[in-house]
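Q: Given only this backbone (142 positions), what sequence would you predict?
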């Protein structure tokens, strides 16, 4: 099973992404900051680091550089809403994939499937499609 370490400081986005990836058949460990991700990188094996770039304490680029030195086989995908930061990430970690916000969950899952080839796509065929509305938190006030 493909294991993903997700680092995203926006709680609603973190929950939303983790739930979508889990429903697509991936094992996800989600953390709020880069510094929270460090012990996981040191003690666990992950196939993918999926990280926001702009985060407090340690940004996603620093986290990815650390991950690359500790776990060189781990693949890296950045998610960001800032175009200028996208360019910086591409220069700092050229082998990483960058997904710009806003993006559709389907695009995220397809990118992960592309990264891992048939191992992901076999599982995706067995997993029902994700209904994005089912991932939204219930908000009785509107």
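A: Predicted residues:
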């Amino acid at each position: 099973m493909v294991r993903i370490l997700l680092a995203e400081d926006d709680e609603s986005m973190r929950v939303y992404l983790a739930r979508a990836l889990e429903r697509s058949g991936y094992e996800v460990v989600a953390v709020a900051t880069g510094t929270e991700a460090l012990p996981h990188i040191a003690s666990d094996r992950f196939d993918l680091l999926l990280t926001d770039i702009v985060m407090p304490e340690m940004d996603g680029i620093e986290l990815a550089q650390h991950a690359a030195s500790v776990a060189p086989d781990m693949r890296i995908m950045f998610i960001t809403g800032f175009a200028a930061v996208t360019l910086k990430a591409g220069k700092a970690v050229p082998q990483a994939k960058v997904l710009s916000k806003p993006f559709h969950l389907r695009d995220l899952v397809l990118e992960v499937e592309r990264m891992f080839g048939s191992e992901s796509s076999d599982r995706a065929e067995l997993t029902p499609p994700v209904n994005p509305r089912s991932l939204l938190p219930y908000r009785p006030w509107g």
